[in-house]
Batch of 3 targets.
Target 1
Amino acid sequence: MALIELKDINKTYNNGQPLHVLKGINLNIERGSFVSIMGASGSGKSTLLNILGILDNYDTGSYTLDGKLIKDLSEKQAADYRNRMIGFIFQSFNLIGFKTAVENVELPLYYQGVPRKKRHEMAMEYLDKLGLTPWASHFPNEMSGGQKQRVAIARALITSPQIILADEPTGALDSKTSVEVMQLLKKLNKEEGITIIVVTHESGVANETDTIIHIKDGVIGQIEENTSHDAWGGPLMK
Amino acid sequence: MRIEIIHEIASSLRNNKLRTALTGFAVSWGIFLLITLLGAGNGLMNSYMGNMESYISQTVLVEGWRTSKPYAGYKEGRRIQLDQKDVDYTKGTEWEGTIDNVTLTTTSTSANLTLNSNSVNGWMTGVMPDHQRQSKIRIAHGRFLNHDDIAERRKVIVVSASQARELVKGDIDKLVGQWVKAGEIAFKVVGIYHTDESEFRRATYVPYSTYKGIYDRSDKIEGISFTVNGPSSLEEHRAFEEKYTGTLKRRHDIAPDDKTGLWIQNGYTNNLEMNKAAHILRVALWILGILTLISGIVGVSNIMLITVKERTHEFGIRKAIGAKPGSILRLIISESVCITAVFGYVGMFMGMIACQILDKTVAQDAVDLGFEKVQMLVNPTVGLDVALEATLLLIIAGTLAGAIPAWKAARVKPIEALRAE
C-alpha cells in the first residue's frame, strides 16, 4: 500500500464564479520517494499541496495517508495529524519573527506537549544537524534566506513526520542557496529515507527529484521518472 | 506549558509596547477610579457614622411636640406635654419584656452659672444616670450623675468643658469639687463632659429628683427614653412605634395620623436605615467604578482584535505545524487576562495610594458647621476584601475582553493565514 493514495479528488472553489480547480486527481506516492509536482500557476498544484497537507478540504474522492482516510476531520484532529505526520517547508519560510531559531524549531513539539527541556535538547540536535548551532539564539531577521530555510527544514523534521511537503522551497533564494537547499533535501531523502514532495513551477528544481508529476488545468498529466539527474548532476537551471 | 504561555505573552507584548501601554492605561484608570471612589465612599460613610454616633444611640427617645392637625375639638399647633401617666404606661405590664431601662428627662431651665466673678449661661436639665449612655456623653473629668445623687436629691451638677473653660482659668479639672451658683442655688461640680475645642454646649445636667424638687414640682416630663428588646427589622420597629405611640396619642388627643404631635427618635431604625444607605452608596460606587472599567475593557478588547488581525499569519503558521484551536484560544485569553491583571494591579496600587493621600490631607481637615466641626472623611481606605473582589473582577474582565478576539483567532484557517503576507 502506498503512503499516499489519492482517488478521484475533486475540488471546486465557490467564490462567486465556481472554479473547478482539481478535476479528478488519482495519484499514489510510495514511502521513501522524492517527488516533485510541477505546473504553471493556476494549474491546481497549490490546492493539491494544501489537500495533501490537510490544510484544506476536498469535495469528492478519497485521500489516504499512511492507511488513514483523511476526510471530514475536525479542526482538532486535522491539527494533530499535521503535527505528527507532515512537515512543511514554505517559500517564505514562515518562521515566527519574535522567536529565536531554536524556539521556532521547538514549536511543533510544544503542541505535542513535550516538556520544555526535552524539546530544547531535540531542537538543538536538529539545528546541529543542519549546521545552525551558532545561530540557535538568533531571530529570523538576523539570518540569511538559506539559513532561515534550513531552520524551517529543522522545524519540519523535528516531529519525524511521514512526509515533508515543500512549497516552492527555493522560490525566495538565490541560485547558489537554492542548490544547497535542494542538495539538503536530496540528502535527507537518500540517507534518512524521508518521503519528500516538492511543489514547484521551476523545471530546474523539479529536475533534482526522482519523479516529476506534471499537473495542468487540474488534472495529472505526464509522470516522468527522472533518473538523469544523478548521472548528470549539472547546475540547477533557473 | 504554563511557563511557555507567559513567555509567549511577554514576547508578544514586547512587540507592541506603546499599544500595550495605552490599553493598559485605560484599565489602570478604571480600577484606579473604582478604588478611589470606594475609598472616598468608605471615608464618607465612616465620617457620617462617626458624627451620628454622638446623637444616636441604641435607644428610643419620645418627646412631646406640637400637633399639626385639629383633633377631638382641639386646634392644631397645640403643645403636647408628656407626664407621669405616660411614664407609668411605658413602664406598665403591656410592655414588660419589651421596654427596659426607662429613663426620664425633665424640661430645661436656663440659668447663669457663676464662680467668683466668672459667669456662663447653662441649660439646666434633670436626668437619670442612664442618660449618659443613651446620649453618649463622654466624661472628661470627674464622673457623671449616679443613683445616689438621684436617691439623695444631691445638689450636684455636670457641666460641659466649654462652660468650664469660661468659669476657670487654666486647667479645667480643678473645677471638679468646687461649688458653682446656678441662679441663687449652689451646686457642687462632680464632672465635666467632653466637648471639642470649637463647640459650645449649654446643657448642664443635675439629678432628675433634684431638678423636680427645685425647678418643677409638676409631673411634667420632657422626654422618655428606653431600650427595646424584640423588634429587629425596620418593619418590626415601625410596627412597635405605631403601637406604642398609638396609646400615647389617644391619651393626649392627638390625631392617629398626626406626624408631629409626638416626636420619636428611634436609634435602632436610624442605624438600620444608615446601614441601608451605606449599602446603597457602596453599590452605586461599584456601578460607577465598573462602568469606568468597562471603557478600559472595551479598549483591551479592541487592541486584542487588532493584534489578532496583525498576527493572523502567525496563527496560520502555528496551526499549520499543529496548533489546535483551543491552544490559540488559550493564548489570546491569557494575554488579555495578563494585560488586564497587570495594569489593573497598577491601577489598584495607585488607587490605594490616592486613598492614603486623601487620608493624610482631606481627612485631616474639619468642616465647620457653625455649632461643631465635622471631619468630611474618616479613614477613606478600602479593605482587603475589596482588593480581592477587584482582582476577581479584573480576571473576569480580562476574559471577557479577550473572548471575541480569541474566538476570531481560533477560527483562522491555516491556508488563509499563510496566504496573507
Target 2
Amino acid sequence: MSELTSSVAPPYPALSEKLKFYGIWIVTALILLALPKVFSSGGALTTFSLIGISIIFSLSYNILLGQTGLLSFGHAVYYGLGGFLVIHAINMISANKLPIPLPLVPLIGGLAGLFFAALLGWVSTQRSGTAFAMISLGVAELIASSALILRTFFGGEAGISANRTKLFRVFDWNFGPQIQIYYLIAAWTLLAVIAMYALTRTPLGRMCNAVRDNPERVQFVGYDPHVVRYLAFCFAGFFAGIAGALAAINFEIANSAYLGALQSGTVLFSTYIGGIGYFIGPIVGAIFVTVLSLTLSDLTSVWQLYFGLFFIAVVTFAPGGLTGLLMMHRPLLKGGTLGKVLPSYLMALVPTLALVAGLVLAIETIIHHTVNPGDDPNIKAFGMNFNASSPITWIIALFLIVAGFVAARLTWRRLAQAWDDALSAAHERGYHA
Amino acid sequence: MLELIVISTLNGVLFGMLLFLMASGLTVIFSMLGVLNFAHASFYMLGAFFGFQISRWFGFWPALLFAPLLAGALGAAVERFGLRRVHRNGHVAELLFTFGLAFAIEEIVQIIWGKSPVDFRIPPVLDFPAFTIFSTNYPAYKMFMLLVSIAIFVGLLLVLKKSRVGLIVQAALTHPHMVGHLGHNVGRIFMLVFGVGTALAAVAGVIAGPALVTQSNMAALLGPILFVVVVVGGLGSLPGAFIASLLIGLVQTFAVSMNGSLEGAFGPLGPAYAQSWLADIWSVTVAQIAPIMPYVLLVLILIFRPMGLLGTRET
C-alpha cells in the first residue's frame, strides 16, 4: 500500500524547491513595487495599469480556452458587467457614505462577473467545441445589444461615470493620482495571478484539463463534464469581473464598448498570441499585445490590419504562441545543441525581414493611394520616409516581396532541417523536455 | 393589419432566403471540413463590395456573375493555402484562423472603400414597383432578390439530390470520414465546397448590397445572426438551417414592424414601480428589441433543445 501511494503521489517538495517557488512570487511583488521608481512618467504608469488589467483578463480567459478547452467569443460580457456594477457601486457607496474603501470595490466586480457567469453559464456550457463558441458569441451579442436598449442602467452610447476619490479612506489615500491606482491594480493583479495559479493546482483545475483532453473518459470516471465546464466558466467570469472592475476604476467610466465584440476579440488575441499551453502564456501575451497596440498605433494608421495579419501568422505558424515558441528551445538549451541552430536562424531572419518590409511598404503605399490620394506623396510609416507615388517604391516593394518569399522558403526549409538535427542530438543526450 | 402581415411575410421570407444562401454554404463547409467558417459573413461583404465595384465599371449584370466568382476563387484559395495548413494545428486553430481572417478582411475593406456606406444602386431595369398591395408599393428589386435566392435554392437542392458531387457532399454531411476512406479526392472536394460556399455568400452580398446598406461593418452585423441560424437549426443540418433561416427572417421582420410595449399593453393599469425601476423594460417597444430577437431565440432553443431544431451531431 505504501509503495502504491509513494509511486502515485508526487514526492514532497524539498526546501530548495519550495524556496524557489515562493521566491518567484516574492520577486514579482518586489518588481511590481519597484517599477514606478524606475519608470516614473505618467505614460508609463498608465501603460502598466493597462497591462495589469489585461493580465488578469487574459488569464481568466485562459481558464476557459487553455485549461478547459472552451473557445469563447464573448468573454468581455463578464468583464463589462463587472465594470458597470462597480461604477454603480462606487456611486451608491459615495452617495450613502458607506464605509467601504476603494481597494475592496474590485471584489464587487468579481462577484458581479461570477453572478452573471453562473446565470448564463449553465446554458452556454451544455455543449463544448464549436457549438460553445457560437453560443458564447450569441449570448455576447444578446447582452451587448441589450446594453444599448436598457439605457438607465448602461447609460446608452455615452456610458456612465463615477468619481473614485469620494469613497471611504484608509491610510489617507484618495486614489486620485495614477500612482495610487497603479499600486491598487498591481496588488490585485498579483492576488488574482496567485489565485488563478492555485486554481490550476486544485483537483478542479486537473478535472478541467481532463475535460479538455477527453470528456468521454471523464464521464466514465464519474464526473459530469458539463458541471466541470460550468465551474470553470464561473471562475473565469469571476476573474474577468475583477479585471473589468479595475478597468472601470482606472478610467472612472463604463460604456457599452466594455461588453462588445472588439473587447472579446482583443482578449482572445492576447491570450492566444501569448500561448495557451502554459500558465505564463497569457501574461506574456497581455504585456506584448498591450505594448504592441500602444506603439503600433503611433507608427501607422492601419495598425489593426497589421495586428490581424500578425494574429493569422501566429495561428498558422506558431500555434503554441510566443511562450510555445520559447519553450520549444528548452531541450536544445539543456542539451547544449542550441548553437547548431543559431546560424540557420540568422540566415532565415534576413529574407523573412525583407519579406515583411516589402509587405509593409506595399500596404502603406496602397493605403496612401486609397485613403488620402490627394495628400503629399512623401509619406512616413514606421519612422521611414518614402515617396508613395514613385515607381521605384513599387519596384522595391515587389522585389522585396518576391525575393524575400523565395529566399525565406529555402532558408526556413534549411532551418527545419538544422532544427531536427539539433533536437535529435539533444534527445540522444537524454534531454526530452 | 392584413397589409402589415402580407408585407412583413414577404420581407421576412426574403430575409430568410438571403440568410439561407449564406447558412447553406456555412453548414456544408462545417459538415465536411469540421470548421465553422467565421469569415463567412466577410465573403458576403466582399461579394457586396466586389459587386459594387464591378457594377460601376461594367454594370450590374456582369457584377452578379463575376463578383461571386471572384469571391469564390478567393475562398478556394483561402482553403487551399490557409486552412489546409492550419488544419494540422487542430479545430481551435482553424476557427481562430477564420476569425483573424474576418478581422483582416474588414480592415482591408475599410482601407479600400472607406468606413462610410458606398453608393450601390438598384439597376434601373428593376427600379419600379412590382405590384401594389392595399396602399404599399412593393419594389420589383425585392421580388428579383426573392426569385434569385429561390432559384439558387432549387438549383442547390437539385445538385445535392441528383448529382454525383451532391451525393458525395450529402454523404460527407453525416459520415465525413467514410467519404475519405472511400477514396475520393477529399482535398479537392473540400476546396470546391469552400469555394462554392463562399461564392453563394457573395451572391447574397451582391443582391442584398443595393437593397440594404453596403458598408464595412455589414459582416460584423450579419455574422452573429448567421451563426445563430446555424446553431438554432442544428449544427450540420441543411434542412435545419433552412427552417431556422426562415424562422429568424420572419421573427425579425415582424418584430421590426410592431410598435407595442408593455407600457402600451397595460396602459394606466401598470404598477407604479414600473415607471421608475423598470422604466427601460416597461417602455421599450417590440421594434426596438428586434435586433436581439435572434439571440433570445438562441437562448430559448439552447434551454429546450440543446442540439438545435434538427441537429443530431454533438459537435
Target 3
Amino acid sequence: MDVMRKLKILSNSAKYDASCSSSGSNRKNTKGGIGNAASAGICHSWTQDGRCISLLKILYTNKCIYDCKYCINRANNELERTSFTPNEVVDLTINFYRRNYIEGLFLSSGVEKSPDYTMENLVKIIRDLRLIHKFNGYIHVKAIPGADPKFIYEAGLYADRMSVNIELPSEKSLKLLAPQKNKADILKPMGLIKHSILESNEYKKKGFRTPKFTPGGQSTQIMVGATNESDLSIISLTEGLYNTFGLKRVYYSAYVPVMENVNLPAIQTIPPFLKEHRMYQADWLLRYYGFKARELLDDLNPNFDVDLDPKAFWALNNLSKFPVEVNSASYETLLRIPGIGVKSALRIVRSRRLCNLSYDNLKKLGIILKRARYFITCSGKFYGDKDMERAALKNYLLDFESFDKPQQISLFNLRSDLFA
Amino acid sequence: MLRYIYDGTFDGFLSVIYACYYNKIPESIEREDSYNINMLFEDEHVTRDLFKSNKVSKAIVEKISKDTLIYVYQSFLSELSGIELKLLKYIQLGFKLGSKVNDYLTDESVNQIHKYSRKVEFEAHKFLGLVRFQEFKGILYAAIEPTYNILEIIGNHFKERLTNEKWIIHDYSRKIGIVYENNEWILRDIKFVKLESHEEKEIFYQNLWKVFHKSVSIKERCNERLQMKNMPKKYWNNLIEMK
C-alpha cells in the first residue's frame, strides 16, 4: 500500500481526537536540528469542519484488539487495516514541517497485539525523530493504558505533551461500552506522568540538569452525549482531573454515532454540539475565571440551560450578587460578570487607576454591554432592567434588542378593572 | 500649515518624531511615495537619519517603556493612512505620562494605537502558520499576501525554526521579501512575480498534504463559516490545501 492511501486511512481513523493544540512547550532548536516549539501554539490550517490543524494527527496503526463500542477502529468493525512504518512517519513529519504545513506530530495508535508492543513502537518513532533526525518541533503522543511504565516514561522524555483519553466519564459506562478497559488502567499512566513532571521540575529547581519531561503537560478527552451522565458529573470529573492530576487541558468531543448498538444513540442522531460547547465554556470558567464545579451546578440543577452560557446561567441563579460597581469591584468579581472576560477585566482594572470609568468608556474597553449592562453599575448609575427578574433578564440576554425596543404599554392589562 | 514628508521606513518615521520634538509640530505627516501636492501645506522633507531614529527609540524605551516601542512599531506596520499623526499624539502623551500611558485606555489615541498594534500582531501570528513553503532545488520559497506589512515581525521565528535551510518569504503585493541564508535574514526588494514549483517531489508532498487536510475533517461537523472565520478567504490564494 502506498503512503498516500495509508495517510488517508490513518488520519481518518485519528480525526475523532479533539486535541490539536501545540502550546505549552518552548523547546529550542538544537545545533544542526530542525524546528522548535512556540509556547503559545500555532495553528497552520483549518479543515472544513472549522477545527484547526496544527499537528500531523495520525494513528501509527488502526489495528486494534479492543472492541470499544463507540470507536470506529474497534476490532469488530470491518475497516481497511494498515500501519505506517516508522520511516514513513518520520519522512512525512519532517517534510510537512519543512514546508510549514504543521507544527509537529500527534501520534496515536490502535492497540496492536498488546499495550506494551504498541507503546514500544510509538516510543521508537519519536526517539528516532528526536535523536536521529534532530527534530525539535512539537510532539504529542498517546500513553497507551496498560503499557509498561518504562515505555511511558521514555515517551515522556521525547514528547512535548502526552495524553490518555478517558472517553467515558464513569465506570458504569465503561463497563457498558468498553468492557475490556477499566478505570484504574486509564488513571495509572496519568498518575505516572504527573509524578514524572513534578520530579523533573523539582530537580530543576535544585539546580540539576535533568531532561525535560513533557514540558507541555498532559491532557485527556471525555466524550459528550454517548451516555447519559449529567453535566455536573462531567465538570466535577474535569475539576478533579485538573486538581489531582494537574492536567493542562480536558477536551470534550460530541459523540458522532459511527455504529449501531443498543447502548448508544442511533446512527441518525445529530451529535450534541451545543452541549459540547457548553462543556468547553464551563471548562474555561473552571480554569480562568475562578469558578468551582459545585458553584455552577448542584444536585437540584445537574444540567446547564442549553440556551444560556454557563456564566449567564450562574449569574441568573445568583442575582443577589448583582449589580456590581465596575469602578470598585475586585478583579475576581469583575470576572464573574457576563460580558466581561479575562482581557476586558484586566483592561478595566488598569484603566480605572487613572480615571473613573463611564458607561461609554466601557464600550471602548471591549466589554459586551448588551450582556453586561444588566449586571453592573457605572459610577453608581444602573443601565439595566430595574426589576432584576430572572425570566425577564433571560429574555433580554437571549434577544438583546428586546430591551431597547420601545413598547406600547397595554392599557387593558394595566387597568383591567376599568374594562370589566 | 506644516507637513512633513518622509521615506516610509520606520527609521524615517522616528526621524520625523525627532523633528517634531526639536522643530515644529506638523499638521500632517505623509509618505514620500503616496502624498499629493497640496498648496495649503508647506512641505518639509525629513531625511532618514539613523542617529536621530536611534535617539528617539532609546528615549521611548527609557522615558516611556519597551512595550510602548513595540506598540509604536507594530501599529506603524499597519501602514494605515494617517497612522503617523496618531502615533505622534500617542508618543507625545507617552512622554507626558511615562509608562502609565498604556493604562490610559479611555483615551482615543492610546486605544486606537493599541487596537492597530493588536491587529498587526494578530495577523503576524496567523502567518506563522499560514506561510506555505515550496521547494525549488533545495531552497524553500513561500509567497504571501498579508494585509499588513508583517514580514519583519515573522523573520526571527522562521530563523530559529529552519536554521539549516535556505528560504525566502515573498510578500508579492508589496514586492519585498526576506531572504535567509547562513543564520542571517535580510529584507530586500523582490521584483519577480510569485513562483510555483513543479518539481516531482514537491508535488508529491503537496498532494499528501491535500489528502490529509481533507481526510482529517469530520463530515458530520461540517462548518464552513467557522473555517472561513478562522482562515479568511483573502489568504486562500497561497494555501496549497485550499486551491
